[in-house]
Amino acid sequence: MQIHEFQHLYRRIRSEIGKVMVGHEELVDLVLVALFAGGHVLLEGVPGVGKTLLVKTVARVLNLRFSRIQFTPDLMPADIVGTNVLVTDEDGRRHFTFQPGPVFSQLVLADEINRATPKTQSALLEAMQELAVTVSGVSYPLERPFFVLATQNPIEMEGTYPLPEAQLDRFFFKLRVPYPDVPSLVEILDRTTGAVLPEAEPVADSATVLAMQALVREVAVAPHLLSYVARLVEATHPTSPRCSALVARFVRYGSSPRGAQAILLGAKVRALTAGRVHVSAEDIRSVVLPALRHRILLNFEGEAEGVDPDRILRDVLAHTPELEPAESLPTP
């Protein structure tokens, strides 16, 4: 696949999603950035703002097999990954056979993931990281591409189980789904209360998505920008000499190396959507918040004062220069 093909397909995909989704342009862009980088997404927002509709629309436009798992407190791991069931063949002999669960799809919507117990939440860990599930000692691979888009409600916390840090780290981006503004709400009402509901059409398939993912890996990154990403992530750690006063005061643990990988791959997708074969510093800065906001663990003081991780990350961006004094750009 060539760069112009990637750019053309991305615009078509974005346009088709826009037939159904009103507003949320930046949100849709970041979801697509994560998918073409090969990552999973955690969508956080109150009910009714379009999280489930967005996931279903993306699955339809990319023509991926879609499944939805409604997470509840009584959901068990076998309800997600599947289980061995006893069957009788034509000769009357009984044997166990594996019955795949809903995770055996290409785009999985984990709806209200924080309503299930940690044991059930962890059933997704292997699938998200290894693209396979293991049942009774047998490993079953998942079809590629494979994405998990999970949703959670940030305000109704009664009866929920916050995601553990290990699972949060598996998500490429954490995206916040805001309320629509008044013009967008008017457009939503006009589209959804009429006789005909808008529908998006498929414009890609599994092979296309895999080809786009492969092209992302080929985007070049200058050495000083690799250093920039590394220094940004290091600056989120309170023990680092590069950290700001805000990080030292409110942060308990900073981002893992997965955060740096998410920044770099997200920046590569951003570069391709702009028609470039190289990453810019602005590409990097544009994905720092969604890539790291769920990887910043606040200390007691930060939790007590309700500090927003985005505030911490903006401070990190402000205090981390693109170039170190010892670094210099190559002369043309």
Overview of this protein structure:
44% of the residues lie in helices and 16% in strands. By secondary structure, it is α/β, with parallel strands linked by helices. The protein folds into 2 domains: 1-74 and 104-218, Rossmann fold (3-Layer(aba) Sandwich); 219-325, Helicase, Ruva Protein, domain 3, CATH 1.10.8. A 5-stranded parallel β-sheet has the order 2-5-8-1-9. A two-stranded antiparallel ribbon has the order 3-4. It has a two-stranded antiparallel sheet with strand order 6-7. A hairpin with a 5-residue loop joins β3 and β4. α1 (3-20) packs across α3, α2 crosses α12 and α12 (257-273) packs across α13 (281-292). The two termini are 29 Å apart. 36% of the residues are buried. The model has no long low-confidence stretch (mean pLDDT 88).
| SSE string, helices as H and strands as E | HHEHEHEEEHHEEEHEHHHHEHHEHH
Share of β-strand residues: 15-25%
CATH superfamily of the largest domain: P-loop containing nucleotide triphosphate hydrolases
- Under CATH, the topology of the largest domain can be stated as Rossmann fold
What characterizes the major β-sheet? Answer: 5 strands, parallel
The number of helices is 15
User: What Rg is obtained from the alpha carbons, in whole angstroms?
Assistant: 21 Å
